Each structure stands twice: as C-alpha cells, then as structure tokens.
Amino acid sequence: MHSWTLPETESREIIKYGLESGINFFDTAMGYQNGTSEEFLGRAIRDFAKRDEIVLATKFVPRSQQEIEAGITGQQHISNMLDASLKRLGTDYVDLYICHMWDYHTPIEEVMEGLHNAVKEGKIRYIGISNCYAWQIAKANGIAKMNGWEEFVSVQGHYNLIFREEEREMAGYCKEENIAMTPYSALASGRLAKHPGELTKRMKEDTFAQGKYDATKIQDGKIIDRVVEIAEKKGVSMTEISLAWLLTKVAAPIVGATKPHHIQYAVSALDVDLTEEEITYLEELYQPHKLVGVMAINQRG
After folding, report:
1. Is there a contact between 157 and 131 (Cβ–Cβ < 8 Å)?
2. Is 262 left (phi over 0), alpha (psi -120 to 50) or beta?
3. Is residue 293 pLDDT above 90, yes or no?
4. How far from chain centre, in Å, is Cα 265?
5. Cα–Cα distance measured from residue 85 to residue 220, given in angstroms and rounded to the nearest whole number
6. Most buried residue, 21, 140, 207, 296, by most Cβ within 10 Å?
C-alpha cells in the first residue's frame, strides 16, 4: 500500500531497537499494509519482548456496505475484526483497541456495547477512538456511562506543530475529562523533521500526505523555519524540537520510524526543554487550517 514502508526483516530491526531504547507503546491497525503491519509487529514482540511489559494498540474500521447489507451488527463486526487482529498479532488480548474513525452508518450504542463485550471477554483492556470530533467522543462516553460500559480513554487525532486544529475543542475536552491524546502525524509526515527543500521517499510519493499539507506549505514553511532555527540554537535535530513541543501538549505522540536515528531522536526529545519564549515563538505564526485527510472526508459525509 505504501512504498516507503519497510519489509519484515527491516521492520523487526526497528522494533527491536525501539524496545532496547525503552519504547513500550506500539500502535498499529488492521488496515496498515493489508494487515501485515499487525503480523510483523506481533512476531517481533513475541521474539524480543515480554508481552505484559508492552502496551499494544490496534484499530478497526467501520462496517462495510457489504456487512450492512448482510445484516451484520456493530457488535458482530467488532467481534469479527478483533478476532482477526488478535490472530494476526499472535496474542490473546490487546491493551488498547481503537475505533479508526467514527462509524456514521452504525448506531454508536452498538459500537460501545461491542467494545464492552470484548472487554468482558478479556480480549481488550481499554478502548480509544481516532479521527473524531469532541462532540462524538462526548456522546459515546455519555452513552457508555449510562449503560455501565467502558468509556474511551484515548483519542488519536491529527495534531502537530503545523496542524493544530485539535486545540479548538478536543484538547480542552480531553484535559477536562482526563483522556489521553496520542496524536498521529506528529512530524507532519516528515515535514517537521526535514529542512526546507529536503525530500524523503515518502514526501515525494505520499499523495495522501501531500493532500493534507501542500495547500498550506507556504504558511507552514514559516513555522518550519523556526523549528530549524531553534534546533540549530540548541544543537539538536528538528525532530527533537518538533516532538519536544508536542510533548508539552499530549500524553504520547505516535511516531513512525524507518531508520534507527528516528528512534534516537524520538527518545532524546524527552530531554529537550523548551522555554515559554521558545514555545510562543514556535506557535505564534500558526493560522487556522481547513480539516484534511480522514476528517475532511467525514465532514463531506
């Protein structure tokens, strides 16, 4: 599906290096690389780690039109998707099971009950959601609370230094409700890790990311220039500055890695302290963005 991702041998090396570097939270999804992401990660964890020391997260997609026409309920859909993921991962439970996006064609009651049933069966420990609005997670958790079901404890949204729309409502809601934010695209598909004009294979070939960032690259570039400036002043990488900023806002950014130094920079970002003046300097040029990616698709219905 994605030409810049790694085959299993190289993926295992990255996962092993991450484990050796102290990383213990791994996020994947049934939809990544047609399920092989789950398979690669599952085998690596079995070979290189103790399962109970790893926080393992995966995601499921909404019901398909074919499932709807066949009369498969939301509860049945979740059970089927989860069992398939567990088989690919080679484990009997996941620590965090995430709705990959809001299902507009399935009653949220069915989704929450299906997740509750899986928790009761011991197949998942906690539940989360990705690509949603604040009102949606508030509604879902309200319904869960009324029925004595598990509530979403995490949100995985699109959030980074050049795309901060989660600050409108989601960030405040999560802080108020003690819900963890674990954003994806933490480095804007590499844009916050590379000097202007420096291109990676992904940046050249990822048309989905181009659709998210190309329209605003001029205004975003001014912020990226400031990342370069502060990184040079502190003698660290752009990755470390970008992630250090994000770590002042969220619980755990999701960082993709295809080389060992990607892991090194992500870990060392924990030791980078940004002053209030530096944070303001990084933030002050931001301009509101239109929703992009999955959220833009959902907005269109």
Report:
1. yes
2. alpha
3. no
4. 18
5. 37
6. 140
138 has a pLDDT exceeding 90: yes
Give residue-wise pLDDT tens across range 192-211.
998 887 767 666 777 777 88
Please list the active-site residues.
32
Cα–Cα nearest to 98, from 206, 179, 199: 179
Write out the E strands in the chain. 25-27, 55-60, 94-99, 124-130, 152-156, 180-181
pLDDT per residue over 46-63, tens digit each?
999 999 999 999 999 999
d(CA 147, CA 72): 22
Interval 74-97: pLDDT, tens: 999 999 999 999 999 999 999 999
Burial 254-285 (b: 16+ CB within 10 A, else e): bbbbbeeebbbbbbbbeebebeeebeeebeee
CB 137, CB 145: distance < 8 Å:
no
The residue among 228, 156, 234 whose CA lies nearest residue 193 is: 228
Token pair listed for 61: 């997609």
The residue whose two tokens read 């992904």 is 202
Q: At what angle do helices 36-48 and 8-20 cross, to 10 degrees?
A: 50
CA distance 274 to 261: 21
pLDDT band at 34 (very low <50, low <70, confident <90, very high): confident
Q: Report d(CA 83, CA 88) in Å as an integer.
A: 9
Q: Is the dihedral of CA 240, 241, 247, 250 positive or negative?
A: negative
- Work out whether the CA dihedral 12, 18, 23, 29 comes out positive or negative: negative
Would the pLDDT of 299 be above 70?
no
